[in-house]
Amino acid sequence: MSAAVNDPAAGLRSRRIGDAVFAGMSRWAGALILIVLAAVAIFLVAQALPALIQGTDEGESFLAYVLPLAFGTVWAAALALAMAIPVAVGIALFISHYAPRRLAAGLGYVIDLLAAVPSVVFGLWGIQVLAPATVPLADWLTANLGWIPLFAGPASGTGRTMLTVAIVLAVMILPIMTAMCREVFLQTPRLNEEAALALGATQWEMITMSVLPYGRPGIVSAAMLGLGRALGETMAVAMVLSPATVISFALVTTQNPATIASNIALNFPEAHGLGVNTLIATGLVLFVITLAVNALARWYVNRRTVSA
Description:
Helix content is 78%, strand content 1%. By secondary structure, it is mainly α.
């Protein structure tokens, strides 16, 4: 037995077998992901064809039906992302480069816990706490900045507006974006940071010269991950938003564009016949939007990696 243990050839054969098994499992796992993705796409296309060809059960063309929903989905997610990115980057920088070690560990743990909060809890918070709190803000924005299309009135008296939904979505995607940015910032080469400080740079100058350029692909990846969740969020939007079939950039009015996911959740239980196909077709549109966003993010990250 000792001879077998000390035999280099036997150890090499064992490692080769392990490498082959692991490589095969990895290939099958990658192929399984593609198979599942293709199966979902085929199902969506097959079920969506009647609606794409015939239109909705109310005689409306599918394009006219889905366009306001697609606009509301992208608009709400974009607003949430614009709110969340600066806050997520700031919190991640504080945890990774400014906070004491014990405080940073505690904050990181809390952020990881916030990422596990169910969306329905955020929806309840949004409709019970945040929506009434935004009513005075909406009135002030309409009265003082109503000449800007974003804040055109009349202001909603319930707070169930696109602004409230955007804030809720921003809070929802903030933990996962912050956690990812924090890990990327911590991977910055220590020698780069020390070199910048040794040349006389301040802490902030070192961050702008070393940490942020190194972490830019990670920030983009975190943003796209948060955007993907915001695009597909259902319950929180359905609970908070007062939807309408409109295309509007106004943030504080009672007429707000609905999102695809919330529209499916609200209407699917009562749908039948062609109505089901219509809702599945809107799901196909959401699938394409999400796929396009992730492909764009991957292209940007790869381009930055090659140029670097």
